[in-house]
């Protein structure tokens, strides 16, 4: 007795009634063009979900790099301001030079972030939406691969 998990036209029969068969020997091939087309479709969906996820990850990395650069610039501005403050007290720089440094330092102080992860936080909701889409697409690919594989029926036992 033979059975299949999918329906379709039989394309090839690799045995005759009464032949001795081995476990795993290919017995029948069923037309799986529909399942193969579905597999290609869900694979495209998986690629799209993967690309979206990778884009969000790149955005998060870029935002974190920008945050680190901004923090380094802020630290440099504060340090430069303190040096120029000392130089102004010694009258080694003009008040105009000091005011320029002070304005740059003030700009960094006002423009800084108010909390950790603020610049990357806006990407997390999108990332959280991408993961389920990727997971679902991956499951669909696995299911479609199984359906394609069901088009080949092999013997489960040795026998006649």
Give the CATH superfamily: Arfaptin homology (AH) domain/BAR domain
Strand order, largest beta sheet: 1-2-3
Structural class: mainly alpha
CATH architecture heading = Up-down Bundle
Number of strands: 3
| DSSP summary: helix tally | 4
Report what the structure shows.
The chain has a three-stranded antiparallel sheet with strand order 1-2-3, with no helix packed on it. The model is unreliable at 112-116 (pLDDT under 50). The chain has a single domain (10-154), classed as Arfaptin homology (AH) domain/BAR domain (Substrate Binding Domain Of Dnak, Chain:A, Domain 2, Up-down Bundle), CATH 1.20.1270. The protein has four helices and three strands. With 160 residues, the chain is mostly helical.
Short description:
The protein has 160 residues and is mainly alpha-helical. The chain contains four helices and three strands; from the N terminus they run ββααααβ.
How is the topology of this model organized?
Layout: E1 10-13, E2 26-30, H1 33-89, H2 95-111, H3 118-121, H4 124-149, E3 152-154
Antiparallel strand pairs: 1-2, 2-3
Helix pairs in contact: 1-2, 1-4
Keywords:
mainly alpha, 8% strand, rod-shaped, Substrate Binding Domain Of Dnak, Chain:A, Domain 2
């Amino acid at each position: 007795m033979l059975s299949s998990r999918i329906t379709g036209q039989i394309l090839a029969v690799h045995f005759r009634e009464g032949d001795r068969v081995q476990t795993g020997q290919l017995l029948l091939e069923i037309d799986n063009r529909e399942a193969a087309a579905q597999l290609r479709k869900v694979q495209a969906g998986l690629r799209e979900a993967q690309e979206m996820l990778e884009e969000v990850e790149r955005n998060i990395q870029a935002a974190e790099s920008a945050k680190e650069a901004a923090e380094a610039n802020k630290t440099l501005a504060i340090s430069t301001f303190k040096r120029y403050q000392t130089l102004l007290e010694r009258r080694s720089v003009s008040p105009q030079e000091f005011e320029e440094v002070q304005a740059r330092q003030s700009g960094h102080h006002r423009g800084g972030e108010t909390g950790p992860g603020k610049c990357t936080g806006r990407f997390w909701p999108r990332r959280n939406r991408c993961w389920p889409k990727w997971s679902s697409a991956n499951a669909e690919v696995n299911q479609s691969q199984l359906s394609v594989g069901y088009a080949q029926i092999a013997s489960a036992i040795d026998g006649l």
